[in-house]
């Protein structure tokens, strides 16, 4: 029915189509020919770079395909960028050379719009108590690391 005693939040999250009420989950989906709902990703996991919408999940898949970070935990997030709107940041778990990873990714054939603008090696990629990635925590960590980088350069 909606959010308890919060009409504004309900109106933002519940829509009516063809006489039925639907909750907007934020998932990007398609209906398969067999009638199943296939989840493709989250709308919140997109970056907008210079007017182009880039799927962060697609970026992660392209990076995985390169095998540059084989057997290494990594994730991408997007942070604000004064020039392009947002910038993609790669977080890599472990003690690696971020510049070397960045060089290898540039040579890998990944489309330029999908290349991370920054690569940070971290002790851990933020996760929720459930073990799933903490997208808010990743964005916060990437923003802090980017600010720290700006102050040292």
The main pleated sheet reads as:
3 strands, mixed
Number of strands: 9
Low-confidence stretches: none
| Average of pLDDT | 91
Binned, the helix content reads 25-40%
Structure description:
By secondary structure, this protein is of the alpha+beta class. It is built from four helices and nine strands. Strands 7-8-9 form a three-stranded mixed beta sheet. The protein has a two-stranded antiparallel ribbon with strand order 1-2. The longest helix is centred in the C-terminal third of the chain and has 18 residues, at 135-152. The protein is globular. The N and C termini lie far apart (52 Å).
Task: Sum this structure up briefly.
With 153 residues, this protein is of the alpha+beta class. The protein contains four helices and nine strands. The strands form four sheets. Strands 7-8-9 form a three-stranded mixed beta sheet.
Record the SSE blueprint.
Elements: H1 7-13, E1 14-17, E2 20-23, E3 27-31, E4 37-42, E5 46-49, E6 52-55, H2 56-66, E7 74-81, E8 85-93, H3 98-107, E9 118-122, H4 135-152
Parallel strand pairs: 8-9
Antiparallel strand pairs: 1-2, 3-4, 5-6, 7-8
């Amino acid at each position: 029915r909606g959010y308890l005693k919060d009409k504004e939040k309900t109106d933002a999250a519940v829509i009516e189509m063809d006489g039925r009420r639907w909750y907007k989950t934020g998932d990007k989906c398609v209906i398969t020919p067999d009638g199943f709902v296939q989840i493709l990703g989250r709308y919140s996991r997109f970056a907008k770079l210079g007017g182009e919408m880039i799927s962060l999940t697609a970026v992660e898949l392209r990076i995985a395909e390169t095998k540059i970070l084989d057997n290494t935990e990594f994730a991408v997030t997007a942070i604000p960028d004064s020039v392009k709107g947002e910038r993609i940041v790669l977080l890599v778990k472990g003690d690696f050379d971020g510049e070397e990873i960045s060089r290898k990714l540039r040579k890998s054939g990944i489309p330029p719009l999908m290349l991370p603008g920054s690569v940070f090696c971290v002790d851990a990629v933020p996760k929720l108590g459930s073990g799933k990635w903490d997208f808010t925590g990743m964005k916060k960590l990437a923003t802090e690391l980017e600010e720290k980088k700006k102050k040292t350069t």
